[in-house]
Structure formats: C-alpha cells, structure tokens
Structures
1.
Amino acid sequence: MNDDPPAGASPAIVDAHLHLWDTAAFELPWLASVPELSERYTVSDYLAAVGEAPVGAAVVVQAGDTAVEARWLFDVLSGADAHRLEAAAVVQFAAERDAWLGRVQSAVDERGVLPRGVRLPVHRRGAEWTALEGLPALLGAAEQRGLVVEVLCRPDQVAAVDGLAARHPGLVFVLDHLGIGTSDPDSAWRSALRTLSARANVVAKVSGLFAAGDDVVAGAERARSVVQSALQALGPERIMFGSDWPMSSRIGPYVAVLERTHAALGSMTARDAEAVWSSTARATYSLHQYR
C-alpha cells in the first residue's frame, strides 16, 4: 500500500514557531529594538494574519522568560479564540532566576496547561554554552516530563548541541531558526549540521530566516542555500516550518512568508512536503495528544 499523500495535496500546515505577547501585561525588554512590534498579539490576531492559509495547528514559543508571562500565555491558549486552533506552548528558560523551574511549574499547576517544550536562549552566550547554570536540572526535568528542548543559538554554538543530544538520547532537541537565523552560512555551521545528522533526537525549524529590509533576491538566494544545506544534513523528516510571526510581519504578510519558504524548500515529493509542513511538528510536539 502506498502511504504517500496524493500528488498536489496540501496538508493542514503546522506553524511550529510563533509568538504572542501583551506589553501591557508584562515587559519584554528586547522589544526596544523593534518598537513597531511593541503592542498586543493574541491568537485572534494570529488567525487574522493567517487568513485563508491552511494552518491547522501551531507551536507558541514564549517570547520572554517570566512566570507572569507564562501565566498570560497559558490563559490565552485556554481562551475561546484558542479553540479555533490546536496549539502547544513552549516556555523559555531563565538561568539567572532562582527557582525558575518551580515558578513555571506553579503556573502550569494553576492554569492546567501542559507546555510541550522549554527553550534555551543561549544566543548571547559563549560558543561553549553547555555549562549554563541550572542546565543539568532543567534537562532532567524535561526528560522526566517528556518536554522538547529548543535551542535558540548562533551558528558557532550549533556544534555544542551534539554533545547534549548524545548524553540525553531520551530528549528531543530542536534548533530554532536552523541554528542560523539571518546570519550567513559558513563551513563550520554546515559541518555542525552534518554532525547532527547522526543524532536522531535533533530536529530543526525553518523559521526566522528572512530579515526586514533585506534585498529580496539576495535574501531568497541565502535562504535557499541555508534550507538546502539543512535538508541535505537532516532530511525533511527532521525539518519543520515556522513562521516566526509576528517578527516575520516586518517582511510582509503571512502568505509572503509561506511563499518565500516554499521557494527556499524547492521541489519536494508530497511525502517530504507533508513532513516539513505538518507531520514532523506534530510528532515532535505530540500535537495529536494535546487536546
């Protein structure tokens, strides 16, 4: 029996990376660098941006790292609008905050929403970031609770993921923005991805690759080079689409992100396209178990 989706099929998209926030309810200091986004973004706003695009599920990544924000996010994902979208939450780790894990657990207990993952924002740390304070306890808790571990890192930090993935084969590690974002790809980044190909517990998001103000042609060529390198190293079954909305709204409407991502992915079989646009994210975040 042939299990491939029908040729030309368009499976419901799983958007594996977006953010929601409300700066009237909590502070996000990093938004000072993008003041045009310093407002409120809810599930309703996201669905309005999506429009007619066939998005059926999403992974909402906490934009900051406070328990106050986590509670707000859990409330939003439990609200009436959220029932129009199957959604999973990823909370963000704060290494310098004492008892972070306990406070987030309290928020989980209060709101009754189970996050599907935790993100490590290490992009402002050194290349050897695995000595991060509190990391062993966090990884142990994530493994015990069945949480995915996302890593927001620079290209020179990708290699360190290999050691963690080897030591924690029971954890799934996710490279946000392919571990490169809007940086230019180099041989070290490509080499690190090839090394990670041996770690079946590492997957990556095609997200955050397009920068506001970039030359469209040059940006498309760069994105295609990055995405094709990732596909060759990891394969489509370990790659998933993420819009990075509302950050991506600076480059154009939601449909433009879809179109530019399609172009970067190039020609794919129906099975491979389904993996990138839907099934990899569903499997990674257990979305079929979320509701």
2.
Amino acid sequence: MGLPEVVQRRLAGAPIVLDGQTLAPETQLMLRLKKLARLPSAERLPVPQGRVVVEHEAAMAGGTQPIGSVRGLAVGDLPARLYVPTTAAPEPAPLLVFFHGGGFMYGGLDSHDATCRLLAEQAGVRVLAVDYRLAPEHAFPAAHDDALAAYRWVVQHAASLGADPQRLAVGGDSAGGTLAAATAIAAAQEGLPLAFQLLVYPAVDARRATRSLELFSQGFYLTSEFMDLANESYVPVVAERDDIRISPLRHDVPAGLAPAYLCTAGFDPLRDEGEAYAQALVAAGVEVQLHRFPDQIHGFFNIV
C-alpha cells in the first residue's frame, strides 16, 4: 500500500496472532478495509455476479506489470496467453504452463494477468496462461480434462512457443494448484516430459479436516463457505471428491513425479493440506522445496 509499516499497524489495529504467527500489518489493513467497505463476497452472490467481483478484486490487487510481450493464442480449443519476459532466454527456452485459481468457478486470463507478468519477469521464463471451463456450468472433471489437454498440446507444439520440451513446467494457485498437481501426476503416468511443478497454496484434499481449516476459515479471505460452494459446484457427486484429480493427497505418489516448489500461507485454511502434500512427495522420493509465508493469507500471490 506504500505506507510505512508503523502507519499500517496503526490503521490495522492490534496485531493478530494465531498459531504462533503474526499477520502482516499490510494484509491486516487490507482485510479491515474490505470489511469496512462492506463489499459482498463472491460466494454470497450468484455465480455470474461473483465472477465480476473476483475480476474487480484482481484488477485492484494486481495493477499493471511491465513485460516484454504478451500475445493471445488458442491451445487447442482453449484461450491462452503467452508472456515473454523483457530479458528472454534464447530459444528454445523454459516455459511454465499456468492455471489460474478461483475455486474452479471464478477467474480467467484477466484475473491472473498481473501474476503471470510478474512470474515471467521475475523468473525470466516464458509463461503460458491457459483458460479452462468453469463450474457449475462444467462440473468435474472438465477443468482437469482441459488442463491435461492443454499440457499435452504444449508438449506437441513446444517449438511454436519458443519452448524447450525438456524444460516445461506446470503451475497454478489454489484450484489452479490442484490442476497443476493433477497434470503433473498424469504426466508422470503417461511418460510426458515435465521438469517442474509450481504449487501455490494448492487445494489437494476435497474432504479436508485440518487444524488450519478450523483456525482460519473465517476472517482471512478464503472462507469455509467459499470452499463448500466450490466443492458443491465443481464436484457435486460426493464420492468423486476422493478422485486423485481433485484430492491427490489421498493417493499414493506415482513414480517419476517432477520436482516441486510448494508454498503455503500461514493464515490460509489450505495451509496444512498443502504442507502434508509436500511431506508426502518427499516421503515418496520427490525433490520438494516447501516454503510457508507465515504472515500471509490465501490469495497473497495475486497481490503483486
């Protein structure tokens, strides 16, 4: 927000300390301002209106990030955008296929435009953001089918993207992290090349019952109501919520899974399941970097 930390703390109020963690004053102030504004949460609106709210919040949080170039394209039948950093690696270059979050109901290329720009610039890699069908119009496994189809397309058309097929990665945040994790699993099972997976506070257990869910499911942006709505909209058949494509934490880790960077937020209801998934990957011999941002909430990745 550009304010000195002491001013942020004054405006935000007394520090919020839970589970041995202190919420960042800037984040606390943002949550307080959101509450004072009495803006409706997306999950309390009809889905079309909720999508407008999500896009508005994303635009406010993301702003405009510099980038070398952006171009729209089609990945099969799916809309996509290719982000090339200002200082681009020589072709063929590394490429990250990115899936946006939003509970499988919200979000799109616009909601994560700033995020993809920042990823491309900071990592110095090409980023291909791929859109996918949303619930409730398209229930499970539509989004997962789209994500995997997109990755298969990228493997086959890497040269047209200036990408090295041996240096491809998948990534996503929240529900997008679920899609990335499931795509990485499918790639291992099918023998597709995949060098890396970037999992940002992923949802990996649709039947979650964790301590972080109990502690942080109210007042810290992502709510239990939102998660319930996401489950009901995307996976209305309860028995399907154990499927590896929606709850990979409930399954054995396949051989040959790509190395992963997984990050969680200290005040996120999804924190514990994400960290449990990282531990499961490590136990299975997968190379994993796990990073918790202890003073942050779900969604911080989009506040760039």
3.
Amino acid sequence: MGEGGESITHDEIRHAVRDLCSRFPGEYWRELDRRAGYPEEFVGALTNAGWLAALIPTEYGGAGLQLPEACLILEEINHSGASSAACHAQMYVMGTLLRHGSEEQKRRHLPAIASGEVRLQAFGVTEPDAGLDTAAIRTRARRQGDSYRITGNKIWISRAQQSDL
C-alpha cells in the first residue's frame, strides 16, 4: 500500500493482492478443505500486508481506503482462487464500530484490529425462523435510557472461533 499518505491505484491494489495470493496455491486450499481447516497463514499474510485494515481510517492505524478499494481486494482474492470467505468480515464487521462506536471504543479497538493483534470476524445473522433471510430477522435493539436492550435468538455466529471480539 502507499506509504506516508500516498494514494494507491486500483491496478496497484490488484497486482499487490494477486502477488500475495500467488503464495497460496491450490494445494494449500485443497489441504484446508480436506481437514476442514481455517487459513491462518493466508489471513495473517493479508493482515500483515494491511489489506484487512483497508477500511480503517489512517488515524486508527488502517489504510483509510474506501469501499471500491475494499471490493477490489476481495475480488482479487476470489479471482486468484483463494477464499475471501475466510477474511471478508474482518474488513466489514468493524464498520459498525466505525459508525456507532464511541471515540474511546474506536481508539481502543481499531488500532488492534488494524495491526492484527485482535481479530473482529464474528457476526450473527442466522435466526431460527429466518435463516439467512435478513428481511425476516426478528432481533431488535430498543433504547432503554442510556443503553439498549437487545432481544432475539441467533442459532449460529459465523467466525466466532476466529474472532477475539
């Protein structure tokens, strides 16, 4: 990625991500499939290169890129034959923290996420009567004074085993 605030072009993103992905050939992915494993080395390489912190603003240690650049990163991962399913949440789940978190929460968590010290990959969508139909989700957050009360049921929290938060 561009150093010291330099911008990076879409072609540079594509080439850099493609180069990183080339270090993880088909056999790497087939072996993970055989043992139902998680691609720790691949996710670590993406994190170390800064790609999973693409959407985190620079003041919190991220790249400060925008959504089109994040889409390019995931597109190139998938185009290479790798799996963005293993890492896409790291890029997008923290958007909730960016939009709704307090400044203290952002300063505490975003630099750790950007550096790879902390992974934030878990997200809960699936409900007993809705499955993945997000329009049918019944979980609700209702304001109660200075806080919220969340009611609902989730039957699966995706990537919980790979998430620190």
4.
Amino acid sequence: MDISTLKPNDRIIEIKHPVNDSENIGIRVTIISLNDEKMKSVRRRFINKRLELEKKGKSFRADDIEDNEIDLLVASITGWEWYGDIEFNGSKPEFTQANVRKVLTEFEWFKNQIAEAVGDDKAFFQS
C-alpha cells in the first residue's frame, strides 16, 4: 500500500432533526476533513492570530474561540442542498459563506452536527 494515496475524501451528511435524530430534515451538506490541504490556511490564520495576541500580552477570549470554531466550520463546508419543504426565513438559501455562517450561528444544533461530522476523521477515509 502506498500511503501517499491515503487522503481524506469529501463527505455528504444529512442534517437530522434536533429532537428526533433519525429524521432527515431535508438538508445535505458536503464537508471536508480538518486535515484536508484546503484547511491549512484556515488553521494557520488561527495560530497567527493567537500568536499576535500573545505577543501583545493578551489572551484568547471565549468569543474569539467561538468565532474561530464558526470560521473553521464554515471553511469545512463546501456545499449544501436544501430539498423538500425545508426553508430558512421563507426560502431555500443559496450556498454562500455568509448564509452558512448565518445558519451555523443561529442554530446551535445544526452547528453541533457539522462539528461532530467534521471531527470524525475515520469517516473521511471510507469509500
């Protein structure tokens, strides 16, 4: 086996109802692994921000950590499909980083499902 061929694949996950986790609500989200090459710049930006704060004698605050989590999750989502009768504020939102950020910020249960899926390293290596 050539380990250079072991690279994470994109995944498509179904968002589940926050109360009944066996019920798909009609949103498919395509995500990439935190270990994906495309995520390096995002991780470096966080490290640089933290180093800059430390250099100034400051430390990360809770809102900085929360903002970083949202930024990381937004970067890990490469697409979504809203199907069926599911809507957000009366329509099916177009896939944009701004719309992803709005949904992740407004719905903690949605954000938690993305965070859990993105954190499942093994799942990105299954065919």
